[in-house]
Amino acid sequence: MSSIFPHELTELAGITSRLLDAARQHGATDASASVFESKAQAVQLRQGRIQSLGREVRNGLSLTVFIGQRQGSAHSSDLAPASLAEMAEAACAIARHTEEDPYAGLPEPSEFAQHLADLNLYHPWEPDSETLITLAREIEGGMAAYPEAASDGAWANAGQSQFWLANTRGFGAGYAHSGHSLSARVLAQRGSSRNRDFWFSQARRQADLESAASIGAEAARRTVAALNPHPIQGGNFPVLFDPRSACTLLGHFSQAISGRPLYMKTSFLGERFDSQILPAHISIAEDPFIPGGKASAPFDADGISGSQRALVDAGWLRSPLLGHYAARRLGRRSTGNAGGAYNLSVTSTLTQPEDNFESMLGKLGTGLLVTGLAGDGFRLINGDYSRVAQGFWVENGSIAHPVDGATIAGNLLEMWQQIIAIGNDIQTEGSFTTGSILIGDMRVAGQ
After folding, report:
1. Pair 176, 258 in one domain
2. Which helix H or strand E contains 157, and what residues bound it?
3. Which of 179, 199, 225 finishes a domain?
4. Which H/E stretch holds residue 247?
5. pTM (two decimals)
6. Domain boundary residue among 225, 248, 263?
7. CA 403 – CA 233 distance, rounded (Å)
């Protein structure tokens, strides 16, 4: 990796070791340190003109110390030995001035990840500037088939990082990972109607990205298709969330079963573990160990491995997403989720191979297809849901006209119980994977 990053992983391990030693010298009874390096190249074009072009090398160092059950933290981008000593001194000074927290502290040594599998996360790509510019031009070229569309930006990005995490209880490990992307934003106009939308592709390997031209074409297609929206009558209708918008429902779910909302008692799911919250045909699984997965990791921010498990099993809520601190607050064991969820996927036993997007429109019948959402209309405390939707009105399984500004509302528990079908048109957005989700009945208010 020396040809990519300024340091080898073993050198990063040495930096964290020296930082931990400095923390002990300044009075820390325990400490955790992490260091990362990243290299990125990116270009942005807009209508053939370069808006930005750059290469960036970054690093960062974090230290958390414990003096008994008092905690302090410090951060720096200076890896020099003198800076390490200053960081340790500052973190310990902060800890001495904080209140004791009975839940503060590092995990027990037996909790740390023991066997680190190679998850195939690192596929470096260092294109030259001309290659990135060419890809961005190809993205804009893909928009050309839609005369009403104009580029509002085309991006090509290549990035790779490595990091090391260590603590005073014997854990020390790190790995490299990569993330590359191509994206497009389109502005379209027809008469007085204007619309903006986007499309993108992200992957660990450059070869796994969608073609640049297809990204531009898809962004333009989506943007043009939504021009000249028509008003709709309000009422109760079935609603189909396309895969991109359906991923937001998984996001709300993961937030509601995460540590802080649970121990602060601000989640509507806090008292619903080991009860049915979804129809029996639906399960939600987490798998941190998918080779090459967009959200795969051998261990979390505490150094604890997650596990392949069912969060929801045949409709029943079984397990939360907990880091070490939250687990202590709740009197439970960590699930290896300090830092968030890892590769959540939703499945239905009713889904058939032929349940593509067109099939899901047929299942919708007459109702609203949601392709975009706006507004912060989710209340974690009680599950109430109200968001502004963009999409299409569907009649008898066929798209009739675009819709923009309609409000869809309900309560997530009631919405989830109303899930009729999940499509086979699977898409992954960050940590979440799902097909389109059909909810049988929601309140829809016309714009």
Report:
1. no
2. strand 149-167
3. 225
4. helix 243-256
5. 0.93
6. 225
7. 11
Residue 209 lies in a domain: yes
Query: What is residue 24's DSSP assignment?
Result: H
Residues 388 and 432 in one domain: yes
- 2 pLDDT exceeds 80? no
What is residue 276's DSSP assignment? B
Which of 412, 408, 413 has the alpha carbon at shortest distance from 391?
A: 408
Do 204 and 77 lie in one domain? The reply is yes
Burial (CB < 10 A; 0-12, 13-18, 19+), residue 419, is buried
pLDDT tens by residue, 265-283: 999 999 999 999 999 999 9
- In terms of domains, do 320 and 206 share one? no
- Which sign, positive or negative, has the C-alpha torsion 212, 218, 224, 229? negative
User: Hey, what are 243's tokens?
Assistant: 């895969």
Say yes or no: 138 and 209 in one domain: yes
271 backbone dihedrals φ, ψ, rounded to 5° = -105, 15
b/e map 119-144, b = 16+ CB within 10 Å = bebbbbbebeeebbbebbbbbbbbbe
* Structure tokens belonging to residue 221: 């297609």
What gap in Å lies between CA 399 and CA 358, rounded to an integer?
10
Q: What is the pLDDT of residues 28-76, one digit of tens each?
A: 999 999 999 999 999 999 999 999 999 999 999 999 999 999 999 999 9
CA–CA distance, 154 with 142 (Å, rounded to integer): 11
Cβ proximity of 239 and 156 under 8 Å? no
Residue 105 token pair: 């502290």
Domain count within the chain = 2
Quote the distance between the C-alpha of residue 290 and its chain's center: 15
Specify the DSSP class assigned to residue 48.
T
215 and 142 in a common domain: yes
Domain check: are 192 and 210 in the same one? yes
Strand partners, 427: 434
User: Which tokens sit at 232?
Assistant: 């709709």
Contact 89, 26 (CB under 8 A): yes
Range of the domain at 263: 235-445
Q: Are residues 28 and 148 in the same domain?
A: yes
